[in-house]
Amino acid sequence: MSVMGDQTSPTPTQEGMGRLQSTFHGSTLNDHGEKWDALWKESYTPWDRGGPSLALAELIREKPELFPAHEKGARRKTALVPGCGRGYDVLLLSALGYDVVGMDYSAVAVREAALTERRVLEGRDKELYDSFVGDEGRGAISWTEGDFYEDAWMVIVSRMHYDLIFDYTFFCAMPPEGRPRWAERMSALLTPDTGRLVCLEWPLHKDASEGGPPWGLAAETYVAHLTHPGEEIRYGDNGKPLAEEVERAPTEGALKRLTRFQPRRTHKAGQDGDGKIIDFVSIWGH
Question: Residue ranges of region Disordered (predicted)?
Answer without folding.
Answer: 1-25
